[in-house]
Amino acid sequence: MVMEDSVKHVEGKNIGHVMMYALSTCVWCKKTKALLDSLGLEYSYVDVDLLTGEERTRFANEVGRWNPNRSFPTIVVNDSAVIVGYDELKLNSLAKGQGVA
């Protein structure tokens, strides 16, 4: 269950549900957000390190479900595909409607 106040939403071109799990201090997370912004894509994100208690545990477990290494950023597309780390090629492909390879 996603807590609405923890998840931030960025308006843009809708290419499906894009959820990014990030850390507020992560350089690669900031670069990924900047790339998503420059591509004009709609996405949601949560800075897991800014959460506390059960909410932090729940989001950390969600990241682990998609990315067993629990590294950041982890981007889940349409609850079916995952992009781990800053991957400019995959994000550009996604923006072009080609999906995640």
Most strands sheet: 5 strands, mixed
Question: Average pLDDT value?
Answer: 92
CATH topology-level name? Glutaredoxin
CATH class: Alpha Beta
- Please provide the ordered H/E string of secondary-structure elements: EEHEHEEH
Structure description:
- This protein has helices spanning 27-38, 53-66, 88-95, and strands at 8-10, 18-22, 43-47, 74-77, 81-84.
- The chain has one domain (8-90): Glutaredoxin (3-Layer(aba) Sandwich).
- The longest helix has 14 residues, at 53-66.
- With 101 residues, the protein is of the alpha+beta class.
- It has a five-stranded mixed sheet with strand order 1-3-2-4-5, with helices on both faces.
- The chain is globular.
Describe the protein's topology.
Layout: E1 8-10, E2 18-22, H1 27-38, E3 43-47, H2 53-66, E4 74-77, E5 81-84, H3 88-95
Parallel strand pairs: 2-3
Antiparallel strand pairs: 1-3, 2-4, 4-5
Give me a quick take on this structure.
With 101 residues, the protein is of the alpha+beta class. It has helices at residues 27-38, 53-66, 88-95; strands at 8-10, 18-22, 43-47, 74-77, 81-84. It has a five-stranded mixed beta sheet with strand order 1-3-2-4-5, sandwiched between helices.
Which structural traits does this protein have?
21% strand, Glutaredoxin, 5 strands, single chain, 101 residues, alpha+beta
